[in-house]
Amino acid sequence: MFISCFFFPDPQADRGQGVHPEDLLPPTIEVDVKLIEGLVVKAGSNIVLPAKMTGIPIPTAKWMTDGNEIASEGHYHIESAGSSTILSIPECKRGDTGEYILTVSNPAGSKTVALHVTVLDLPGPPIGPINILEVTPDYMMIQWRAPKDDGGTPITNYVVEKKDVKKPWEPWSVMCAYRVPGLIEGMEYKIRIRATNKVGDSEPRELPQTILAKDILVPPEVVVDVACRDSLTVRAGQIISLITRVKGRPDPEITWTKDARALSRDKRTEINNNYPLCELVINEAVRSDYGKYAIVAKNSSGQAQMCLALLQVPNSLRCQPPVSSCPGSLL
């Protein structure tokens, strides 16, 4: 007669029950050192974090990230069998960058290891608004800020594209502020900018309005130092120097006058226009230099005038560059 015996192992036996205390061994973890130093992958690829664990009884494994335990569901898949455990993240995203902590434990103790993952992706778009610093018929100057997210790797350059509203986009590679050349006066242009890292180009940041290629006109303004707005005094034979600060776009044409008559350069008279500073110099002052002096600044968007007075009395006086705006006419 034969007797058949079936033995059903206790699933808890391997986890510590039925193991004598003197037979317990604390857990250990073996992982590729590259995972500890840091795994770098591109977005869309699969992340696989394998580990081997030993101990008596066989340890249990727990994966965590950002202080939360990871469950084997949704975006994560955990496979723990025997002495191995594997955390898989298919089609990873930039947000999967971080530290993944594996803790294995049994009745004899626990062991923890941290694995580091960096997911590289395209950078975010440059931060707006795009600032227009200057526009002329030939070029424009634009400025922007770096993306909030560089995609996990440094921004290498930016691609600035301009588009005649009737033509395709034209790209240039540049850095964070750029002089966009090749404009045609009177044409309207769209502008957009992409950030680039070693993964590729970001989505563009586009200037919402079109830009007309023409000069930005600013009417002239003449500013004179307070010391030059009263009657000035010099001694015969000394130098008369009148200095003003002139603003305007395009650069204004400058005319100096004495008693309403235009002055020109001669052996005693110098006219120096180094914008924004404009200076009238009269060498070796004589009695006939007494009179009312004025500066007139004129461009295509307007005209400005400032008057000064000069008297011939002792002591010399030299005007310094102006420090405040004082429009109006003075004797």
Structure description:
- This is Titin.
- Residues 27-114, 220-309 form the Ig-like domain.
- It holds the Pfam family fn3.
- The chain is mainly β and 331 residues long.
- It folds into three domains: 25-120, Immunoglobulin-like (Sandwich); 131-213, Immunoglobulin-like (Sandwich), CATH 2.60.40; 219-312, Sandwich (Immunoglobulin-like), CATH 2.60.40.
- The chain has one helix spanning 33-37, and strands spanning 25-30, 39-42, 47-56, 60-65, 68-69, 77-81, 84-89, 98-106, 109-120, 127-135, 140-145, 157-164, 170-174, 177-180, 188-196, 205-206, 211-212, 218-224, 231-234, 240-249, 253-258, 261-262, 269-274, 277-282, 291-299, 302-312.
- Strands 2-9-8-4-5 form a five-stranded mixed beta sheet. Strands 12, 13, 15, 16 and 17 form a five-stranded antiparallel beta sheet that branches.
- The model is unreliable at 1-14 and 313-331 (pLDDT under 50).
Could you give a quick summary of the protein structure above?
With 331 residues, the chain is mainly β. It has one helix at residues 33-37, and strands at residues 25-30, 39-42, 47-56, 60-65, 68-69, 77-81, 84-89, 98-106, 109-120, 127-135, 140-145, 157-164, 170-174, 177-180, 188-196, 205-206, 211-212, 218-224, 231-234, 240-249, 253-258, 261-262, 269-274, 277-282, 291-299, 302-312.
